């Protein structure tokens, strides 16, 4: 009898010790996670490294070689509110996710659409902006095309930027059309202007700007956008402190009306056009 | 040799006319068939811009890109030459182990597309090596003056780590070709020279230093100089890992301004300026070598 209670006592003691170790370990882990979060690291470094890719009017270089654009404003304000300097890391769009995962920068603020497939690899903040796909077509090749269904034919060629949401949008809405993918938007547009592709699918407002620039070659077959995508900051997985900060920062600047005002400046006016050419 | 008179034959005229016609046709297609709005006046400002604040002309993105390309190819060449000479000596060594190392290196690098090599190196090996060397810690702890010297010689602090990764990749890649040039130079030295040296009782080191290398040098140098030009051209590959060299800056500029053709043509001109002038120097150098040999 006595040995039995002794065994029970020992068992309880062992469980208690394990629990204690567990609790202290969890505490330590929490502390470690806080310290290792991107946010803390950026604060310690005094620099927030932002990955972005040139994409008019989200991010581009002006005449003096300085970066300007909607995303640039957002990232600059974010860093200012954190009390750190901002450092932009221009990265090719196709390699931007691996670059984030391998720690070349802290966060992607580059008009990245929140897609479930992407979200499996990255964490996204809540959306700070919504973007949509729109389409610009060649006047000769796509003459008389009025809706998406006109483009959904095997003899139609669509040009898109590689590795981006337009690819998904084009495949979803025009599955029968052929896709031709390019590294840059400018090459994709040129393909349509040259009459080698019927139309280009891209995030608004780019197609509209191109149609304005080449009125005799290009036109907008459908008004406005045909998709709506949430845009968020992308960070590495497992970093909830950073995510929490970003989310609340977005709530804060939205409430202030600042985001809306910036969006208006970059997307609804073309006052900035004279700054890049 | 008998001096031959340069005469223009009817065939020459036909060929020249055909080439001219082809050129004119391409030009016509570009102007008429391409529906492209040329805007050359926008380009010069991306080379140099006038800064009102400081009242002076400053280099802009394309020139910065060109400077990065020059830095990258210069240091890449230096590093690749070191790697190439060491590995080349390994390849020509008597020790099986050294030969294996040299062979593995050369075969591995030469049989991989440079693009694949760059991605692998940048995303996987680059990080490990960089953190092992403590590059970013070193950069952060640098004083202002040191970092400005480093910025002048290599890249500004924020771009230093990727620049180094690109530099090492480029050097490893070019190094493989230089290895083969060095090996070929060493092994092309006549058998008799080796045998004579052994007969004289020279050690391997003495043999290399006094007999083989002095004779191999004139054979190595011309192809080596050619490889330097290749390094400049190959440096464009690192634009895929977002090193801000000429090609990358040009592509960024294109996505911002949509001046696709103007920018590509400008970039072509800038690259040609670099490589053609180097080609001329190499040519002069080869003539000089031939004369000093005779």
Description:
The complex is a heterodimer of chains A (277) and B (294). By secondary structure, chain A is of the alpha/beta class. Chain A folds into two domains: 39-130 and 230-276, Periplasmic binding protein-like II (D-Maltodextrin-Binding Protein, domain 2, 3-Layer(aba) Sandwich), CATH 3.40.190; 133-219, Periplasmic binding protein-like II (D-Maltodextrin-Binding Protein, domain 2, 3-Layer(aba) Sandwich). Chain A has twelve helices and 14 strands. In chain A, the strands form five sheets. A five-stranded mixed sheet of chain A has the order 10-9-11-8-12, sandwiched between helices. A three-stranded parallel sheet of chain A has the order 4-1-5. In chain A, strands 2-3 form a two-stranded antiparallel sheet. The longest helix of chain A has 35 residues, at 2-36. Chain A is elongated, with a radius of gyration of 25 Å. With 294 residues, chain B is mainly alpha-helical. Chain B has one domain (46-293): MetI-like fold, CATH 1.10.3720.10. Chain B is built from twelve helices and two strands. A two-stranded antiparallel ribbon of chain B has the order 1-2. In chain B, a hairpin with a 4-residue loop joins strand 1 and strand 2 (56-59). Chain B is globular, with a radius of gyration of 24 Å. Chain B starts with 9 loop residues before the first helix and ends with a helix. The mean pLDDT of chain B is 86. The chains are: A alpha/beta (277), B mainly alpha (294). Chain A binds chain B through residues 45, 47, 49, 53-56, 60-61, 63-65, 87, 89-92, 95, 98-99, 102-104, 183-187, 189-190, 193-195, 210, 213-214, 217, 276-277, and chain B through 33-37, 42, 45-46, 49, 51, 60-61, 64, 119, 123-124, 127, 140, 158, 162, 239-242, 244, 248, 251-258, 260.
Helix and strand topology:
The complex is a heterodimer of chains A (277) and B (294).
Chain A: H1 2-36, H2 38-45, E1 47-52, E2 60-61, E3 67-68, H3 70-82, E4 85-90, H4 96-101, E5 107-108, H5 116-119, E6 123-124, E7 129-131, E8 133-138, H6 148-151, E9 157-161, H7 165-173, E10 178-182, H8 185-193, E11 199-203, H9 206-213, E12 218-219, E13 229-231, E14 234-235, H10 240-256, H11 258-268, H12 273-276
Chain B: H1 10-33, H2 44-47, E1 48-51, E2 56-59, H3 61-91, H4 96-110, H5 114-133, H6 135-141, H7 144-153, H8 160-187, H9 191-199, H10 204-234, H11 246-257, H12 260-293
Antiparallel strand pairs in B: 1-2
Helix pairs in contact in B: 3-4, 3-8, 3-11, 4-8, 5-8, 8-10, 9-10, 10-12, 11-12
């Amino acid at each position: 009898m006595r040995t039995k209670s002794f065994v029970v006592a020992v068992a309880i003691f062992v469980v208690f010790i394990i629990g204690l170790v567990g609790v202290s370990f969890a505490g330590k882990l929490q502390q470690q996670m806080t310290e290792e979060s991107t946010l803390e690291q950026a604060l310690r470094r005094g620099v927030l490294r932002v990955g972005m890719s040139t994409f008019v009017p989200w991010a581009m270089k002006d005449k003096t070689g300085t970066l300007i654009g909607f995303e640039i404003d957002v990232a600059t304000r974010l860093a200012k509110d954190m009390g750190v300097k901002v450092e932009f890391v221009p990265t090719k769009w196709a390699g931007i996710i691996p670059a984030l995962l391998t720690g070349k920068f802290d966060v992607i603020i580059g008009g990245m659409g929140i897609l479930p497939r992407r979200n499996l690899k990255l964490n996204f903040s809540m959306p700070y902006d919504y973007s949509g796909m729109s389409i610009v077509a060649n006047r000769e090749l796509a003459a008389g095309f009025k809706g998406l269904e006109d483009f959904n034919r095997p003899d139609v060629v669509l040009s898109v930027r590689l590795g981006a949401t337009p690819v998904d949008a084009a495949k979803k809405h025009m599955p029968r059309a052929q896709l031709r993918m390019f590294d840059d938007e400018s090459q994709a547009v040129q393909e349509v202007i040259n009459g080698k592709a019927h139309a280009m699918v891209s995030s608004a407002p780019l197609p509209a700007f191109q149609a304005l620039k080449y009125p005799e070659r290009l036109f907008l077959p459908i008004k406005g956008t045909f998709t709506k995508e949430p845009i968020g900051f992308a960070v590495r997985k497992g970093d909830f402190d950073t995510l929490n900060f970003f989310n609340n920062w977005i709530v804060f600047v939205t409430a202030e009306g600042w985001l809306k005002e910036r969006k208006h400046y970059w997307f609804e006016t073309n006052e900035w056009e004279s700054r890049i050419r | 040799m008998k001096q031959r008179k340069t005469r223009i034959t009817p065939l020459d005229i036909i060929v020249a006319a055909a080439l001219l016609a082809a050129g004119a046709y391409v030009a016509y297609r570009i102007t008429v068939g391409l529906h492209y709005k040329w805007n050359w006046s926008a380009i010069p400002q991306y080379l140099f811009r006038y800064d009102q604040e400081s009242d002076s002309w400053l280099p802009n993105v394309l020139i910065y890109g060109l400077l990065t390309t020059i830095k990258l190819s210069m240091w890449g060449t230096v590093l690749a030459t070191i790697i190439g000479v060491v590995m080349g000596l390994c390849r020509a060594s008597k020790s099986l182990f050294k030969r294996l190392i040299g062979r593995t290196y050369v075969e591995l690098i030469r049989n991989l597309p440079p693009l694949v090599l760059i991605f692998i190196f940048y995303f996987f090996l680059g990080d490990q090596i960089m953190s092992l060397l403590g590059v970013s810690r070193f950069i952060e702890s640098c004083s202002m003056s040191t970092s400005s010297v480093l910025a002048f010689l290599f890249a500004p602090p924020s771009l230093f780590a990727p620049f180094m990764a690109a530099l090492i990749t480029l050097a490893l890649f070019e190094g493989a070709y230089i290895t083969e040039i060095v090996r070929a130079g060493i092994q092309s030295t006549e058998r008799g020279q080796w045998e004579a040296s052994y007969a004289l009782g020279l050690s391997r080191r003495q043999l290399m230093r006094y007999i083989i290398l002095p004779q191999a040098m004139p054979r190595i140098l011309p192809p080596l100089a050619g490889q330097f030009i290749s390094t400049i051209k190959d440096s464009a590959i690192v634009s895929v890992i977002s090193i801000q060299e000429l090609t990358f800056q040009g592509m960024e500029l294109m996505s911002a301004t949509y001046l696709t053709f103007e920018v590509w043509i400008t970039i072509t001109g800038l690259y040609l300026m670099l490589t053609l002038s180097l080609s001329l120097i190499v040519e002069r150098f080869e003539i000089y070598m031939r004369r000093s040999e005779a």
